[in-house]
Amino acid sequence: MNRILLACSSGMSTSLLVTKMQAFADSIGEEAKIWAVGQDQAKKDMADADVVLIGPQMSFLKGELAAEAEKYGIQVEVIDMMAYGMADGEKAYKQALGLIGATS
């Protein structure tokens, strides 16, 4: 199962993307747990994730979150701007899978 954590300022702007990513994972028969949290919760939840994707508006926090993620051997990356803006669940899911593959 792929465990993908999305983080944004409040956890609200990524909720549509979570829905679309989950729908894409389901459509290709992959088991995935995808959830969104606000930036304050991200450090706590990353222990349960395989990868963390952050909203473009949080790119300034990437270094801080990546340092925390090192403890768990996972990557943190900014969600592709086009995927985020268009709520492209397929593109965002594939981005996450690429990062998971790079760390395993």
UniProtKB/TrEMBL annotation:
Q: Which domain of life is it from?
A: Bacteria
Keyword set for this entry? Kinase, Phosphoprotein, Phosphotransferase system, Sugar transport, Transferase, Transport
Species: Terribacillus saccharophilus
Sequence ranges assigned to domain PTS EIIB type-3 in this UniProt record: 1-104
Record Pfam families: PTS_IIB
Family annotation (SUPFAM superfamilies): PTS system IIB component-like
Q: Could you confirm whether the keyword Transcription appears in this record?
A: no
Does the record's keyword annotation contain Chloroplast? no
Classification via PROSITE patterns: PTS_EIIB_TYPE_3 (PS51100)
Chain positions found as Phosphocysteine = 8
State the protein's name: PTS sugar transporter subunit IIB
MF terms (GO), sorted A to Z: kinase activity; protein-N(PI)-phosphohistidine-sugar phosphotransferase activity
Family annotation (Gene3D superfamilies): 3.40.50.2300
A single Gene Ontology biological process assigned to it is: phosphoenolpyruvate-dependent sugar phosphotransferase system
Q: Which InterPro entries match?
A: PTS_EIIB-like_sf, PTS_EIIB_2/3, PTS_EIIB_3, PTS_sugar-specific_EIIB
